[in-house]
Amino acid sequence: MAAVSMRLPVARKPARPSASRSGEKHLVAPGDTITTDTGYMRGHGTYVEEEKLIASVAGAVERVNKLVCVKALKTRYNGEVGDIVVGRITEVQQKRWKVETNSRLDSVLLLSSMNLPGGELRRRSAEDELAMRDYLQEGDLISAEVQSVFSDGAVSLHTRSLKYGKLGQGVLVQVSPSLVKRQKTHFHDLPCGASVILGNNGFIWIYPTPEQREEEAGGFTTNLEPVPLSDREVISRLRNCIVALVTEKLMLFDTSILYCYEASLPHQIKDILKPEVMEEIVLETRQRLLDLEG
Amino acid sequence: MATVVLSEAEKVYIVHGVQEDLRLDGRGCEDYRCAEVETDVVSNTSGSARVKLGHTDILVGVKAEMGTPKLEKPDEGYLEFFVDCSANATPEFEGRGGEELGSEIANTLCRVFSSESTVDLKSLCINPREHCWVLYVDVLLLECGGNLFDAISVAVKAALFNTRIPKVRVLEDQEGSKEIELSDDPYDCIRLSVDNVPCIVTLNKIGYRHVVDATLQEEACSLASLLISVTSKGALTSMKKMGKGSLDPESIFEMMETGKRVGKSLHTALQKILDEEESLGTSRQKVGFLG
Questions:
Q1: What's the structural domain count of chain B?
Q2: ipTM of the complex
Q3: What is the pLDDT of residue A127?
Q4: Among A4, A168, A243, beta carbon nearest to B265
């Protein structure tokens, strides 16, 4: 009953020009001149040399009035205040945790920015400092919001709301941060039966929808009971759909993930990762998204 | 081995999933990830192969060189294995970090191929006690995505299938000194028979069940694993237990049976792909690394 499928590699086809592109994107590589006009302000990803504006990263040029910046496709996460991120604890230090969020520097979660169990508000004492490891250990996953950005680019997180905190059972998918679309909310309860957190830093967390919503302990007690098989199938299917969308470089947001899930229903879960099935599913998703727009 | 750090809840989720035969990506316990195999990727080797199994990327090159036979086996050639864990795969392999893993893999390959029937070494002999072909098999780890041993053994088998050893003629002078003449025609060569070359199947024990082709996350949840090498007919040539956990004899027996079953399907799929690639001949479009 073992299934082993091997295939010969197929050369990547050059991307077809997409019909929905509103305007031609100006793509640049590091070192390319963007413009020789000196009237523009330089934004992220650019620098000025010999009166020419030159790109320092590979990506698409974005112009907002007089500001020119280059947005890279594959990049580390650059924190901005108010972003939702999913991170993994790497170190437990004196009054803070170091969190890995796929950025250039480890992010910081101060003990004072963390919710205490039960939602109580009080000054953090020495006992709290000693009990830090009881709250969050190395390897734990958390969902948090960016409170501020230090001058060197490091991000300071906070979990000062009951919807943030330690994450329980589920699946983590790591994608490039530029593929996560900015939306009003990043916590979605998909109608297919699972919930998803689309972290701005590219960490996508898929988990079974929790039954009760009223009592939230700030997310410190992890539920380690076995997840039912039906929920597992939905989660695995969502995970494979997200991997398919990322391979075909489609933006990730709740509608695209949902359409991809529905397009994948005729196939078996493990078949979604086959290249030809992936192409077919993403093509259908792209079509439905275009119909939605137009 | 490259490791990922997981939270307790994630590990519990994976273990419970394996109990119900549904892994994170929807596979069953005995399913392999989609593999891509291509041979003849490196032009200055006698044979080469590249295997991509999920996120694991392996490149194997075989070079045939003339050497002297070993003293205890004067009428046979031999194989030498060398494994290089490139720093490309994970930052842990930087500098000398990958040496330990590399020598472990090379020793395992030596053991797997130590059996007499795996490769016909007598065909590699040119002059008994004087000259023989030595096959240097170099394995390069480009990316580490779990299940290294299986991918490496599949790549080694594909590379040996692709190896072309030039035909030599031994000429004797009147004085009795022997001269070796290499044939001028580049297509005049001997091929090795890989019918008995074994493939390694790694079975990782997770919870109460075992899985084949574990990803890095699943390897982090498994405390013990069994490595068995199986030939295409289902015969076991070697077995090795890895990991710091323990295995009880009943589960070892079950894992062996699973390994033999899975090994046979692995060989069938690989042979089918190699034959398909061979039949395409020169019209095959080489993809290589920039495809």
A1: 1
A2: 0.89
A3: 81
A4: A4
